[in-house]
């Protein structure tokens, strides 16, 4: 199985390639520089593996949530590559990728993932490990931190937390668990999308290029309004 993954949904930019049991990857924290870096990263992992795009089975992309601009860049790049190569696409949640990263790096079994969504909100998801895969518990949401804690209640025991949401709103979000353990994972990485994409591929969840869609969680951009404006 040969799957390429790309992600530009947050401040990090990454590409990774799975070829059977081998993985090749590139990752860099590069705010506002994704358009310049992502294609060279893709080229680098393909060269590492000695493959061309046409030899891939599918391309996975970070579907969001995250930066509106970053998510759009990621899906546009993935669609362009997939269209040229004639391969299908697999959208992977950026929150799920961060949770998978906590499992890979920290051995985390239960993970709360939160990305700072600006405007006093976070993108949030609760994940639990099943057979090496992080699976979503409930739904991913965008919410004010206090409202999130009130709605979800407190998890018993130790739970790993990942993402910039906990850095920004840690005081409010500490009510989500008896004890929150901070992971080294701050942003998603394409390498952690690969095991999730493999499961999706085997389940027949890859889609044609034109059917790939982002997940913003917000229906539209909510702008700060000037006084007296609607």
From TrEMBL:
InterPro entries (UniProt xref): ATPase_NBD, Gcp-like_dom, T6A_TsaB
GO biological process: tRNA threonylcarbamoyladenosine modification
Keyword Transmembrane helix: no
An MF annotation (GO) of this entry: transferase activity
Residue span(s) of domain Gcp-like: 28-149
SUPFAM superfamilies noted in UniProt: Actin-like ATPase domain
Keyword tRNA processing attached: yes
Main location class: cytoplasm
Keyword terms: Cytoplasm, Transferase, tRNA processing
An example Gene Ontology CC term for this record: cytosol
Pfam family, one: TsaD
CDD domains tied to this protein: ASKHA_NBD_TsaB (cd24032)
Compartments in which it is found: Cytoplasm
Superkingdom of origin organism: Bacteria
Family to which the UniProt record says this protein belongs: Belongs to the KAE1 / TsaD family. TsaB subfamily.
Protein name per its UniProtKB record: tRNA threonylcarbamoyladenosine biosynthesis protein TsaB
Organism whose genome encodes this protein: Aeromonas taiwanensis
Encoding gene, per UniProt annotation: tsaB
């Amino acid at each position: 199985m040969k799957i390429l993954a790309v992600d530009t949904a947050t401040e990090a930019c990454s590409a990774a390639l799975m070829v059977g049991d081998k993985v090749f990857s590139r990752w860099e924290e590069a705010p506002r520089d994704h358009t310049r870096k992502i294609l060279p990263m893709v080229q680098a992992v393909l060269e590492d593996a000695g493959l061309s795009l046409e030899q891939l089975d599918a391309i996975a992309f970070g579907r969001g949530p995250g930066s509106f601009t970053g998510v759009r860049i990621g899906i546009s790049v993935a669609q362009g590559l997939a269209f040229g190569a004639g391969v299908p696409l697999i959208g992977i949640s950026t929150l799920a990728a961060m949770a998978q990263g906590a499992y890979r790096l920290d051995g985390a079994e239960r993970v709360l993932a939160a990305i700072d969504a600006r405007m006093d909100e976070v993108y949030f998801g609760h994940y639990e490990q099943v057979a090496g895969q992080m699976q979503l518990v409930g739904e991913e949401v965008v919410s004010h931190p206090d409202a999130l804690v009130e709605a979800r209640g407190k998890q018993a025991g130790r739970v790993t937390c990942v993402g910039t949401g906990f850095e920004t709103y840690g005081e409010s979000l500490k009510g989500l668990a008896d004890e929150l353990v901070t992971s080294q994972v701050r942003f998603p990485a394409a390498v952690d999308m690969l095991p999730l994409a493999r499961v999706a591929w085997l389940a027949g969840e890859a889609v044609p290029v034109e059917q790939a869609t982002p997940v913003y969680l917000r229906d539209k951009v909510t702008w700060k309004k000037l006084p007296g404006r609607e």
